[in-house]
Amino acid sequence: MKKTILSLGVTLFLCLTQVTYASSSVPNVKGKGAVLIEQESGRVLYEHNAYEPLPMASTTKIMTCILAIEEGKLDDIVTTSKRASSAPPVKLHLKVGEKQRLGDLLYALMLQSDNDVAVAIAEHIGGSVEHFCEMMTKKAQSIGAEHTSFKTPNGLDAEGHYASAYDMALIGAYALKNPEFRKIVTTELISIPTIPTENSVRHDLQNKNRFIYSYEGSNGIKTGFTNKAGHCFVGGAVRNNMQLVAASLGAGWGSRGKTQKYTDVINMMNYGYKNYEKVVLIEPQEEVATVPIDKALIKEVKLSCNDKVVMPLTQTEKENVYIKKVLPTNWVAPIKEGETVGELQVICDGVILAKVPLTAEESIDKAHLLDYIKQWLKK
């Protein structure tokens, strides 16, 4: 009989269950909600009230940008509507009827946080602002951002517009995997249109994100402020081949809050790079284990691991982490090649950090009476 195994869900499921291990003093963070995650594993390295839905201001535009990249064409011509033109500052001052390439407008969206640009993009991609916001929320949910609801494409305060710090970091980590997105958010200066377009107007753009100028390895990504949200920031950086993403929502108000949002992210980044190192824990390999097979001529099935697990660990964790095989006592034929039979678990201090499936290397048919007779005669 099959032994009940933990549900595997997907091929590789990393347990992102708010577990952090502090090998040094925790970072000084003032944000109402804050989190630090490692991109490849998604592991949470630090969190403070990370899962509470909060207003997130213009960090919203991270989703606006990545969704436009995925759903639109960068050479599309976007025509400014009256609704877009009348959006409140900060704005590019697009004129009604002004035309710009979608790819060019994304620079204005992310470098200068222009609200009119966000509306123009939303109308172009979604047909309406409202439908585009529905697309944004659906996309967020698809990547695991469960405490997020978008009602505006620019982050201006609205009823039902919110996200958690964890969700914003998750969205940021997802967006940074896209080369076009990374190119946009790390650009310091650019003038649009980059390609002459009829009815276009020249705009000189400068990246207002001070983080990219001041932190080693920085690769973006987005600041934000509204009266309700306070100062917010989602930032990313790469050092030692480790991409970290940090988010601080509600870091403060006024000039102090404007600086604090950067300080929060920098303190979290420094904490992460000081205390964690990426470690290869599991690599793809054949014949990791065998399991006895009942009702088959072949007596056991060989199991393979097809996944790789790389996780950030502290020095203490590296000394205590181990891999556990979880296998059934036996399996009943038939079995198909690639079928999940067991799993490997990465465990540290009694906590499962990650788990990957072990799958059958070959298909094995169920044996019938005639098969046993033929086998006996052959012997």
Q: What does this protein look like?
A:
The protein has 379 residues and is an alpha+beta fold. It contains eleven helices and 18 strands. The strands form five sheets. Strands 1, 12, 13, 15, 16, 17 and 18 form a seven-stranded mixed beta sheet that branches. The chain has a five-stranded antiparallel beta sheet with strand order 3-2-10-9-8, sandwiched between helices. A two-stranded antiparallel sheet has the order 4-5. Helix 3 runs antiparallel to helix 4 and helix 4 crosses helix 5. It is elongated. The chain starts with 12 loop residues before the first strand and ends with a helix.
> N-to-C terminal Cα separation, in Å?
28 Å
Mind describing the biggest β-sheet?
Answer: 7 strands, mixed
- β-strand percent reads 25-35%
Structural class: alpha+beta
Number of strands: 18
Low-confidence stretches: 1-23
List the secondary-structure elements in sequence, H or E.
EEEHEHEHHHHHEEHEEEHEEEEHEEEEH
What is the global morphology? Answer: elongated
| Rg on CA atoms, Å | 25 Å
The helix content, as a percent range, equals: 25-40%
Taking all residues together, what is the mean pLDDT?
Answer: 92
In DSSP terms (H or I, runs of 4 or more residues), the helix count works out at: 11
List keywords for this structure.
single chain; 379 residues; alpha+beta; 7-stranded mixed beta sheet; 5-stranded antiparallel beta sheet; 11 helices; disordered N terminus; Peptidase_S11_N; signal; serine-type D-Ala-D-Ala carboxypeptidase activity; cell shape; hydrolase
Q: Could you give the topology of this structure?
A:
Layout: E1 13-14, E2 33-38, E3 44-48, H1 61-71, E4 77-79, H2 82-85, E5 99-101, H3 102-111, H4 115-126, H5 129-142, H6 165-175, H7 179-185, E6 189-192, E7 203-206, H8 211-214, E8 218-226, E9 230-239, E10 242-249, H9 254-275, E11 277-282, E12 285-294, E13 300-305, E14 309-313, H10 315-320, E15 322-326, E16 331-332, E17 340-348, E18 351-360, H11 369-378
Parallel strand pairs: 12-16
Antiparallel strand pairs: 1-18, 2-3, 2-10, 4-5, 6-7, 8-9, 9-10, 11-14, 12-13, 13-18, 15-17, 17-18
Helix pairs in contact: 1-3, 1-4, 1-6, 3-4, 4-5
